[in-house]
Amino acid sequence: MRTRCPRTREYLPMTNPLVFFAPSGKRGRFPEGTSVLEAARKLGVDLDSVCGGRGICGRCQIEVGEGKFPKLGIVSAPDNVTEWNAVEARYVSKRGPLQEGRRLGCQARVCNDVVIDVPPDSQVHRQVVRKSAAIRDIAIEPVVALHYVEVREPDMHDPSSDFRRLQEALEEQWQLKDVTAPLESLRLLQKALRDGKWSVTVAIRHKREIVGVWPGLHEQGVGLAVDIGSTTIAAHLCDLASGEVLASSGIMNPQIRFGEDVMSRVSYVMMNPGGDVELTNAVREAIGEIATAVTKEVGLISNDILEMTVVANPIMHHLFLGLDPTELGGAPFALTIDGAYQTRAAHLNLPLSSGAYVYVLPCIAGHVGADTAGVVLSEGPYLKPEVSLLVDVGTNAEIVLGNRERLLACSSPTGPAFEGGQISSGQRAAPGAIERVRIDPATLEPRFKVIGCDLWSDEPGFAEETASLGVTGICGSGIIEAIAEMLLAGLITPDGVVDGALAARSPRVEEDGRTFRYLIREGEPRISITQNDVRAIQLGKAALYAGVRLLMDHYGVATVDRITLAGAFGSHIDVKHAMILGLVPDCELDKVGSAGNAAGTGARIALLNSSARKEIEEVVRKIEKIETAIEPSFQAHFVGAMAIPHKSDPFPHLEAELGITFKRGGDGETGRGGRERRRRG
Ligand code: FES
């Protein structure tokens, strides 16, 4: 828009048009004819491009603002940039129409003051919105980015290597200096250049190293985030530019055949020469299979994977990297390495892209692994003022407590009871396992739900629906609910004794040698909760609670503001029943939740955001590690926590929610108001 001199009314000499970018708010003046992409680059505006402005990748789409913007002094209109051109027409003819009002930023050239909107999908550093409001979105900050380049053909008069000319092209077209390439990428270069008629797409890691080469334009870079659990291995295939999860898969960890839990696998390594290699090969082969399966699902191959991130507990971490886990089998549980580690996928015999890297998140301590680091990265307690408690329940509970001031971590030996081990009818969470239990306090009759069927056992159709599944046992979440419900119904005392006096009231209370058991299901198999089962759960939950209290003591707090249960098991536990059992301390119930596979989400964040890697490395370095085995107060906390929910710790929020008062000190009673106590009395 031309302006007149307010005094003489003569036209002033034209200044360069002003370009204002939203939402960044960056602005600057550029000569007429500057492309929007060029202007964006000069101002550092986040506008994506793979093809470098050749009108073929479609990543640079923008919208031209329309209307008056008085604060900016701009009247913006679609014709303040050049007209739709032949390159855009060609793009649309090949790739389909652009969204209404969109232009290719590399083709639209500025011819007057203009407001340019950069939509989220055209930003490199976009946000991947996560469903829960309590957790932050994932910001994309690519570790690996794709760059399309046109490379000079070789010339007899100016001899230089293919790689030299590629380096020149990258510097000229992308301002990337001194890019390097491993041998694996160089091996692909000659053919790719010739197949692509001297144009190639290269995947460049950290703006330095070529980790993938394709002839012509290659538009999608993918990475794999892997969570190696003792039981299952889960993987998410992600688009590195958009953050979208393209495919996910989980398989059983094949190391199970060498031992059910991690300690038995360490024993296997100690007893069998070469056992460590067997275990390492088993887990790497399984990851190779997952990589093949998830890429196949979306029409790619595992060689298309440019980057992989891994979270795992310390023993899985060591076995995956091929490090001897023997030291982790006993005190002082020294890790070979605790910091984050990255190495070439080829060194780990993984069938990924020729130059791909594997980044393993840092371990926190000998019993608190990279999986917990993943949970910390995903949940971000170090960013919040509130004191959060993160618990990953397994054979070893990994516990983190704190906020942006301080974070502390420990692990506590909960034993296998929560995974169904050492429980008379216990089993892993699998179809047919009882996962929910309710007990009527008046009749002492139970009802339950099994995995794989939505009906409760007292609903019509349950028998038919479970006929093929069977009711095969009770899994961890089922046991937690069963024991919590038994307490509420008065079937067990706060000390955890199955009350034999109730045999007179219900045939479900059965004599079992010198103790009693409670029958949940008649049939084959008979499923009951024995005195020993209750004891095993008490020992496990007391260990976990004692670990939590130890961290609370060290931090100097008597309560926590938020509790997050992580891990596969954590996501299945009913938080109210977990608290009734005394697995975790009292807290407002709506601030207690499960984070699902938070460790896997942490791996995904580290895959998509290079700063997040530095962030978690620094946070983990600062976490104060508490060793429960040498803490004198652990034992006292453990003893107090054997009672259900606890010998002396208050549970005001839980009591208010349930409308009951827990009885303490082993007087054998917990009741709903006074009504229940009178009835039993
Ligand atoms: S930058 Fe690739 S189409 Fe514009």
From TrEMBL:
Ranges of compositional bias, category Basic and acidic residues: 664-674
InterPro entries referenced in this protein's UniProt entry, alphabetically: 2Fe-2S_ferredoxin-like_sf (IPR036010), 2Fe-2S_ferredoxin-type (IPR001041), Beta-grasp_dom_sf (IPR012675), Corrinoid_activation_enz (IPR052911), Raco-like_middle (IPR041414), Raco-like_middle_sf (IPR042259), RACo_C (IPR027980), RACo_linker (IPR040506)
Ranges for region Disordered: 662-681
SUPFAM superfamilies registered for this protein in UniProt: 2Fe-2S ferredoxin-like
Domain 2Fe-2S ferredoxin-type: start-end pairs: 16-122
Protein name: Drug:proton antiporter
Organism: Labrys miyagiensis
